[in-house]
């Protein structure tokens, strides 16, 4: 396949400054001293400067090596090391040191574990609840291979938000997410809503620029609404290296605005849509959100 991104010039709205601020170094050093990882660093998130300067980060638990090899993702794919049972405590220490009031916890996918790492997710939430009770917790979880007991374990720990990214339109799953399952991801989102003592907000996100069509995006939005997804993020795919899936299109900010408007009309309660948006972008701002006005 010819690499379209070799001929597509990155537009100005996708160019970001390299991080050099004192706040950035402060967050980086706290994480390094506690042997913690962030998806901001591992996946080369374009918003790492903004988020670190605001003193926030999306913590990456269960190590930094993923058992899956999605063609758009920069996270390392290999055989992961054993779990660290003390990771929840170290994560809580970092949150205290950073003075965070809203935290996002995500992970690599661990298909090698019977529960997909759900116990560490639940332990991290429980540790934060005990030691920092006023801190709101959002988790961005893998699909646990359809292990609903694992999902229930995370839900029972009482996070404020459960996010599971659908990532790409369904027609591109075979090429981009061959180890993923679109139907399982939708079912996971659907199961977040019913039967919980505490209301947990459901959230998802996807990227565009892979070669999807407008009707693919509309179908995806319809499927997410049918799964009772409340919050949504839409962002531009950027090719991490030349070995990854090429960028087929750079969407203009006006096109992201149009997608946001469509999503809000369809019933999503909160939408972040823009070229640099990723799944945890402005996550704390959506805490008390209602239907956005346009």
- Overall structural class, as computed from helix and strand content, comes to alpha/beta
Number of domains: 1
What is the name of the CATH topology? TIM Barrel
Q: What is the number of strand segments? A: 10
Helix content: 25-40%
Distance between the termini: 40 Å
Low-confidence stretches: 290-294
In CATH's first tier, which class applies? Alpha Beta
CATH architecture: Alpha-Beta Barrel
Strand content: 5-15%
The CATH homology group name: Aldolase class I
- Overall mean pLDDT stands at 85
- Main beta sheet, described? 8 strands, mixed
Rg, nearest Å: 18 Å
One letter per element, helices H and strands E, the order comes to HEHHEEEHEHEHEHHEHEHE
Description of the molecule:
With 294 residues, the protein is an alpha/beta fold. The chain has a single domain (24-283), classed as Alpha-Beta Barrel (TIM Barrel). It has 10 helices and 10 strands. The chain has helices at 22-33, 39-42, 48-53, 87-98, 118-131, 148-156, 173-176, 182-192, 214-226, 253-266, and strands spanning 37-38, 58-61, 65-66, 76-77, 102-107, 136-140, 161-163, 201-208, 231-236, 270-274. The strands form 2 sheets. It has an 8-stranded mixed β-sheet with strand order 1-2-5-6-7-8-9-10. Helix 9 (214-226) links the parallel strand 8 (201-208) and strand 9. Helix 5 runs parallel beside helix 6 (148-156).
Short description:
The strands form two sheets. An eight-stranded mixed beta sheet has the order 1-2-5-6-7-8-9-10. It has a two-stranded parallel ribbon with strand order 3-4. It has helices at 22-33, 39-42, 48-53, 87-98, 118-131, 148-156, 173-176, 182-192, 214-226, 253-266; strands at residues 37-38, 58-61, 65-66, 76-77, 102-107, 136-140, 161-163, 201-208, 231-236, 270-274.
